[in-house]
UniProtKB/TrEMBL annotation:
Coiled coil: none annotated. Residues 10-65 form the HTH lacI-type domain. One of its GO terms (molecular function) is DNA-binding transcription factor activity. CDD domains: HTH_LacI, PBP1_LacI_sugar_binding-like. This is Transcriptional regulator, LacI family. Signal peptide: none annotated.
Amino acid sequence: MTREPPRRRATIKDVAKAAGVSAMTVSNVLNGRLQFVSPATKKRVEREIERLGYRRQANARSLRVAEQRSIGMVIVDESPAFLADFFTCQVVAGLANVLNSADFTLTVQGMRGDQLSSSMIMRNFEVAGFCAMIAGPDMERHQSIQKLVELDQPLVVFQEPFESAGGDLCIVRQDDRGGGQLIGDHLLARRVTDFLAIIPAQVWPAIEMRLAGLRESLAANGGVARLTVITSKSESFADVQEVVAQHLATHPLPGAIVGANDPIATAAMLYLFDHDVRVPEDVRIVGFNGFEAHRYARPRLTTVDSAAYALGERAGKAMLERLESGRFESAEYVLPVHFDAGATT
C-alpha cells in the first residue's frame, strides 16, 4: 500500500464558502442545532461537507484535552449484527478495557464498505485515533484502509496480513496461517486424506489466512490429501447446515470437516449427528477460535484457541503508546494461537 502526498484539510470556512452560508451555520449543522437551519440549507451544507471531505480535527490545539480522549473503532462488516460475532466482541472488549483504564472512551461504528466514506465517525467525530477491523476482498480492504490513513491520525488495523508501507499505521493480528497449519498437521497425523472446509461468503482476511495455512500443511505432506472448500451464505446455523446438506447430497463423506470458526464447525457437526454420522469415528471435525461456547458441545470440539481479547488489549496499548510518544513502537504485532485437541478428532 502506498501513501499519496498529504492533502490540505478542508476547514469550516471552506465548507461555508462552498455552501454559501456562514461558518456559524456550518457549525450548527455539525453540532445538530437544526432549529437554526432550514432543511434545504442543512442538505446543502452536508453535501459540501461530503464533497470536500471535511472532518473536525481532534488533535487541533484549539480543542480541549478532554475532547481528544476518545478512540474510534470502525468495523466494516456486511452484517448489521456485527457485534454478535464472538471474535469481534472479544476484540472490542479487550480494546475498550485498556482504553478505559487510561480514561479514554471508545466509540464503535459498524458499516458496510460502501458506507465508510460518508460515515459520521469518518467525517465529523472528534477522536485521537482510529482502530479498524475490515472485511471484504483484498482491494476493497486496502482502499478502506487508505481512506483511514488519509485522515492523518494514528491508525491500528486488526487482522490484516499485508505489510504497510510506513505511515502512522500499526497492524495487530494473530497467527491465523499458523493455526491453519496446525489443523492440517493434526488431521494428517490421523491419516485423513479427504478434507472439507466450510467458509462464509463474506471475506475476512483471517479466514483467508487459516485456509492458506491448511493448504500449506497439505502441500508439505506431498499433496496427497484432497481439500474441497464450500461457501455458506452466512455464518448462521441454518445457512451452514443447508450448504453441508447440499454438498453431501452429491459427494461422499469427507474424512474431516474444518469450519472457518467454531459456530460453523458446530453446525456441521450437529447436521451429521441428525443424519446418524458418527464423530469422530466417521468424520472428524475441527473449528477455530476456542471461545467459551465451544465447550458446551458434546463431544467437545477440537479447535484452535484465538487471541481475540488479547488482540484488543495489544491494540489499546499500542495506541496509548503512540499517543504518548508520537510514534508506534512497532509496525506489526503478531500474537500466537494454540491448538486445543478435543474429542472430535
